């Protein structure tokens, strides 16, 4: 996975796109992940990762009782390894599903993943609503308030906006002004790729659209840095 080599050795990933890429790579490589469940260790494999539905599916283990314990448990910290790096992420709200005609466990995507090259994996507390304010279509005909909720290295991301605004895939939002952390802004044209209905923490409905930058803007690295941080710099 080439994207990993571009990240700091000790990185905190908060971009859904980059998290999915890493989890898909672990799944394809058939690497095990595990979690401590009381005095037991639950060892499993990632079977499927779905960015749009924002969930992943892991396999049952051979121990039926342990599978039931996992389904009844609260948040679990899963760990594994990939390309000589330790991986750690928290999963919660398990649901039993059928995957390829076999029982499995479905989880919402983790909000963050720690990628760590040292022996121990640190626990990183991450705000649950990382986003950037954006005045969408500021250079077009209908400017509106929105939040950028995800950006990846190669210029893809996600934007969230009010549920009463309806935008079709292929819509071009011109001159969107994305506010940078601290000060300044980045202006870019966004092309929408798909749109889903999502729920905010307060239960209200919103739209979330995947997008790509029509051309990569200056300041993209700083935008990406909001969703991917160097753990060594955080702890310094």
Give a written overview of the molecule.
It is a single chain. The protein is of the alpha+beta class and 236 residues long. It folds into two domains: 115 residues, Roll (Pnp Oxidase, Chain A), CATH 2.30.110.10; 100 residues, Thrombin, subunit H (Beta Barrel). Helix content is 17%, strand content 47%. A ten-stranded antiparallel sheet has the order 7-8-4-3-2-5-6-9-1-16. A six-stranded antiparallel beta barrel has the order 10-11-12-15-14-13. The protein is globular, with a radius of gyration of 19 Å. The model has no long low-confidence stretch (mean pLDDT 88).
Quick take:
By secondary structure, this protein is of the alpha+beta class. The protein is 17% helix and 47% strand.
How are the SSEs ordered, and which strands pair?
Blueprint: H1 2-5, E1 11-13, H2 16-28, E2 32-37, E3 40-50, E4 55-59, H3 64-72, E5 76-82, E6 85-91, E7 95-99, E8 102-108, E9 113-116, E10 132-136, E11 144-151, E12 156-162, E13 172-179, E14 185-199, E15 205-213, H4 220-227, E16 228-230, H5 231-235
């Amino acid at each position: 996975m080439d994207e990993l080599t571009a990240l700091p050795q000790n990185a905190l990933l908060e971009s859904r796109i980059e998290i999915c890429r890493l989890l898909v790579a672990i799944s394809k490589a058939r690497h095990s992940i595990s979690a401590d469940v009381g005095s037991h260790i639950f060892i499993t494999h990632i079977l499927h990762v779905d960015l749009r539905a924002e969930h992943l599916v892991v396999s049952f283990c051979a121990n039926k009782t342990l599978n039931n314990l996992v389904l009844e448990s609260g948040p679990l910290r899963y760990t594994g390894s990939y390309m000589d790096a330790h991986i750690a992420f928290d999963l919660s709200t398990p649901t039993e599903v059928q995957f390829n005609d076999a029982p499995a466990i479905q989880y919402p995507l983790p909000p963050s993943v720690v990628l760590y090259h040292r022996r121990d994996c640190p626990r990183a507390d991450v705000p649950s609503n990382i986003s950037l304010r954006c005045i969408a279509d500021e250079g077009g005909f209908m400017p509106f308030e929105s939040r950028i909720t995800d950006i990846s290295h190669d210029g893809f991301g996600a934007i969230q906006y009010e549920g009463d605004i309806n935008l079709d895939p292929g819509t071009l939002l011109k001159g969107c002004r994305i506010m940078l952390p601290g000060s300044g802004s980045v202006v870019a044209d966004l092309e929408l790729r798909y749109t889903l209905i999502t729920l905010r923490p307060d239960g209200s409905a919103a739209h979330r659209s995947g997008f790509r930058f029509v051309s990569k803007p200056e300041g993209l690295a700083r935008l990406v840095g909001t969703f991917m941080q160097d753990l060594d710099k955080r702890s310094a």
